[in-house]
Amino acid sequence: MKQDTTGFFQRVYEVCRKIPYGRVTSYGAIAQYLGTKSSARMVGWAMNASHGLEDVPAHRVVNRNGLLSGKHHFEGTNLMQQLLESEGVEVTDSQVQDFKVVFWDPNLEL
DNA sequence: TACGTGACAAGAG
DNA sequence: TCTCTTGCCACGT
After folding, report:
1. Is the minimum distance from the CB of A2 to strand C below 7 Å?
2. A39 is in which domain, residue-wise?
3. Alpha-helical runs (H) found in chain A
4. Is A22 a member of any domain?
């Protein structure tokens, strides 16, 4: 992978790695932090490309509704949910409970 | 080289 | 308040 030429992806990964344990963030928040809030889809695409990267906790990234829209990209259908629950994040039916509470905004924290 | 796809978000009707 | 449409950009074919 051309890590240097894909600066956008690298930044996405960098932000993901900074997500605190037990917290989650949204694609839009990451996109906004990178200055391209209109390209939240790119963040999703970056996540798709980050599968093999253990350093990137993609399970902590959900859509603005707190829905685990990317769970189908994990091995188990509810692996993503289990990972979050193991971190103390309450997840019900692929939906993060108290999303506002566990939400971590890189724009404010970084 | 060009077109389609993609784990989203926000505005408009 | 809900649903539909548009924007945005990199990657894969």
Report:
1. yes
2. 6-109
3. 7-17, 27-33, 40-49, 79-86, 99-102, 106-109
4. yes
